[in-house]
Amino acid sequence: MSRHLLSDQAVIVVATKNAGKVKEFAHALEKLGKGVQSLHDYPAIPDIPETGVTFAENARIKAKATGDALGVPALADDSGLRVEALGGEPGVYSARYAGEGATDADNNAKLLAELKALGSALPEAAAAAPQDGSKLLSRAQFVCALALYDPRTGEFVEAEGTVDGIITDRPHGDGGFGYDPLFWLPGLGRGMAELSKEEKGAISHRGEALKALLAKLNG
Ligand SMILES: O=c1nc[nH]c2c1ncn2[C@H]1C[C@H](O)[C@@H](COP(=O)(O)OP(=O)(O)OP(=O)(O)O)O1
Ligand SMILES: [Mg+2]
């Protein structure tokens, strides 16, 4: 039954207003022959308050509100950054870290200011560091929770993905979105914002979550 949830849809509604997420889902789902719509295509749907205390809860809230409003299945992504030196913050508050309506630049600046105030630093040996003298500030993890909701049955299918990295004291690359410029991948020796959409999708929290979701749907 859940198999049909996506196989019947030529266009998948992604319950997001984040243009960076839309691009990544469009790229990934294009390979399955599917188009993507987002909340930008449905401006009549009111803002959805993200009142959950977990990524999974917020993903379910966004998927349900959107699916119920449209009467078709909706896929939602709630994601964010957990920074070890900050005890896991900003976590579910990642989008509003520097306040309501904060831009990615505001949030990145706040993250660097907080880590600087703590004097947080990792030993150089902790990872393959960038070759430009960047300091490694803290271990971190991106988390992505996906929820696919079918308003016709009330059914949810959910999956999560993560990717580990290190926050650097300066940006690397100008791809991606959000905290990508400050997120260094020691295993690759590159920054997340230096990866192509294809490369990011192969290793990212969102890519991992999507693989797990598709495996569930096909399993
Ligand atoms: O791949 C990523 N690369 C960098 N940063 C990322 C990524 N994935 C999530 N993030 C950051 C952006 C935002 O600060 C927060 C998501 O917050 P989150 O509420 O899930 O998304 P959002 O408010 O931007 O759009 P929406 O809720 O309409 O889907 O984590
Ligand atoms: Mg949000």
Structure in words:
This protein has 219 residues and is an alpha/beta fold. The protein has one domain (2-218): Maf protein (Alpha-Beta Complex), CATH 3.90.950. 32% of the residues lie in helices and 24% in strands. The protein contains 6 helices and 7 strands; from the N terminus they run H-E-H-E-H-E-H-E-E-E-E-H-H. The protein has helices at residues 2-7, 19-30, 55-70, 104-118, 197-203, 205-218, and strands at 11-14, 35-38, 74-83, 136-150, 155-168, 183-185, 190-191. It has a 7-stranded mixed β-sheet. It is globular. The chain starts with a helix and ends with a helix. The chain binds 2'-deoxyinosine 5'-triphosphate (Y43) and magnesium ion. Magnesium ion binds next to loops.
Q: What's the topology here?
A:
Elements: H1 2-7, E1 11-14, H2 19-30, E2 35-38, H3 55-70, E3 74-83, H4 104-118, E4 136-150, E5 155-168, E6 183-185, E7 190-191, H5 197-203, H6 205-218
Parallel strand pairs: 1-2, 1-3
Antiparallel strand pairs: 3-4, 4-5, 5-6, 6-7
Helix pairs in contact: 5-6
The protein binds 2'-deoxyinosine 5'-triphosphate and magnesium ion.
Magnesium ion binds at residues 50, 95.
Biggest sheet character: 7 strands, mixed
Tell me the total number of β-strands: 7
CATH architecture: Alpha-Beta Complex
How big is the Rg? 18 Å
- Number of H/I helices: 6
Low-confidence stretches: none
The CATH class turns out to be Alpha Beta
Strand portion, in percent? 15-25%
What is the average per-residue confidence, as pLDDT, rounded to a whole number?
Answer: 95
**First-residue to last-residue Cα separation:** 11 Å
Helix content: 25-40%
**CATH topology, anyone?**
Maf protein
Number of domains: 1
**What ligands can be seen in this structure?**
2'-deoxyinosine 5'-triphosphate, magnesium ion
Order of helices and strands: HEHEHEHEEEEHH
